[in-house]
Amino acid sequence: MDAGRGQHRGQHQSSERQAGQHETGQRRPDERPNGGVQALGGLGRLSLTSRAFILAAAVVMVFVMITPSLGVYFRQRSELADLNAQQTRTSQQITDLQDELKRWDDPGYVQTQARSQLGWVMPGETGYRVIGKDGKVLGQGAGLDASGDAASATQASPWWQKLAGSVRTADAPARSTGQR
User: Fold this and answer.
1) Which pLDDT does position 180 carry in this prediction?
2) Rounded to an integer, what distance in angstroms lies between the CA atom of residue 13 and that of residue 33?
3) How many alpha carbons lie under 13 Å from residue 23 in its C-beta half-sphere?
4) Cβ neighbours for 139, distance < 8 A, ≥ 6 positions apart
5) Looking at residue 149, what is its pLDDT?
6) Rounded Cα gap, residues 152 and 5, in angstroms
7) CB 142 within 8 A of CB 153
8) Beta bridge partners of 131
9) 28 by DSSP, 3-state: which?
10) What is the chain's percent helix, strand, coil content, to nearest 5?
11) Cα-Cα-Cα-Cα dihedral of 108, 111, 101, 95, to 10°?
12) Within a 10 A sphere around the Cβ of 62, how many other Cβ atoms?
């Protein structure tokens, strides 16, 4: 019976060793329960540099995946800021045009515009126009163009073109004909 117990005890010890436990009852850290050494793809334990490399590769991969989305995000933020600025400018233009429309309801404003843009005078007043040697009207008074529209005559050229034309005219004085 003792011999049977010995065999039974020997089998029991070998089964404990197969479970990865020492005679003290503790399992070695490098052993699996089946008694084999842990294997991570046959590499054993990964070193710190391998883990750092894998982490860096994962970060780069995430960055590559997120970059197009970030580009779209920043582009759309820029477009949104541009649209907000455009909306502000448009709102200001609407306000200015509404103010101008209200001014046209004032008879005094209409009279002033008729005098300055069309050269009209009130009954009993005398209007003067200075005419140059070439037969054209000189000065600030605006005349009607061929279609009879005073607004298009004053808006035909912007103010900076008129300014540049006056500078050129002043820069090239009239040539004398030799008569004194």
Assistant:
1) 47
2) 14
3) 2
4) 129, 130
5) 46
6) 122
7) yes
8) 137
9) coil
10) 55, 5, 40
11) -70
12) 10
